[in-house]
Amino acid sequence: MYFILLLVIITFLLVDFLAKIRRYSLTSNYPGPKIYPIFGTTEIFKRRKAEEYLEVFRGYSVKYGPIYRMWIGHELIIFIEDPAILETLLSSPKYINKHSIYGMVKFWLRDGLLLSTGPKWHSRRKIAAAAFHYKILEGFVDVFDRNSHILAKKFKKHLDGNEFDIYWDVSLAALDIICESAMGTKIDAQTSTDCEYIPAVEELSNILCQRVTNVCYWNEGIFGILAPKIKARQDHLVKILHNFTEDVILKRRDALLTNQIKGDGISPPESKRKRAALLDVLLQSTIDGKPLTNADIQEEVDTFMFGGHDTSASAVSFALYRLSRHPEVQSRAFQEICEVIGTDKNKPVTYKDLQSLKYLECVIKETLRLYPSISLLGRRALEDSKIDEYWIPANSNIIVPCHIVLRNPSSFPDPDKFNPDRFLENSAEINPYSFIPFSAGPRQCVGQRYAMLEMKSLLSTMLRYYELLPMGPDPLPIAYLVLKSTNGVHIGIRERKF
Fold it and tell me: Is 445 annotated as a binding residue?
């Protein structure tokens, strides 16, 4: 018995070793940092401040070029920055599976749209696309608008001439918006301190930040061994989140079945009222004639929550920061807002209004170019393939450093300059695979139109209320799962006079 077990283990290790040798041979022409036996690229294990990693990868790009490799233990990681190669990579079904690092959030998101593959991903993607149909998005505009005004009014306490960190308040607004639009549930994150979901989301995000910058924490099992207390806390927090979404789903399903939804502004699709939460779409969707189970729905709702909260908060915060530092851009954006929406702060915005804010959209795009909410995209090769002269072996991990791709001077001249006009003047000439803040290809962000409308609403409301002032320190961006700043995002404000 023990002999057979030992033989199986030896065979497994031998096969794994031979596969590694083969991957090493196929990628021998790749540049990259020095590799050591067993450990691989030990340079990546150096103790660094988390905010230094963006510059580290920028240095690798300068030193090794647009495609290079690393090894972490037996795992091959290929970094690709060339838009021409990215077009093949991101559009091909050979690379549709996600990098193994995404497994770090599986305990939370399970097998939702972000992590699923194969037929399950294809069927869920169709449902998600329907959930973000423009007719449904139109119904969310009043959710965006109402919560934008709550945020703007909260900022009034900062009309004292001092600079302040905007990130936390913007994050709460984004959380209110995604909860109401995804789940049809108001948690009043901006005005209440009673909901345990809010601090649980924030603390869990911080734990994930620790894990993503420590390669020893990437594997769930090893993480539990090396940091058992943090792992136990993580499990407790995710239980809070799962219990919350499960309770919402059960109540929502019961309400739809009895057709007695009332009081929260959400209606079942058979109603003639405009707005249905994304959850309602999932509850009434079928795959092969069968409705989704509560577990199916929960993993998608959790995925919407994960993908639609911190990402929006990051983009809006950095956009407000940049507008405060560029008064000429701020003035031009404000002028457009006055022409489209008017000067009445209390006037509700419409879907058409937000769609018409073309220059503000350029401001958002330029912000995302300089501060992509998701700094790294990851894929896993399903089979051996060759792009140009480079072999990409099966089971190798691929990383796309978005913050490098988006500052490529060949695609964006004077890349470190904040210049929204580049999306007005040359937008037709920009390679879609060089502008990838929402990824690209079949696995691009299904909610990007939703995100753009939300960001336009928040920014246009803030600019109607306040003049943004260049006060406080510049942010120190840090690439966690979502781009943040280690020292916050600071501005000053002055009440807008018409």
Answer: yes
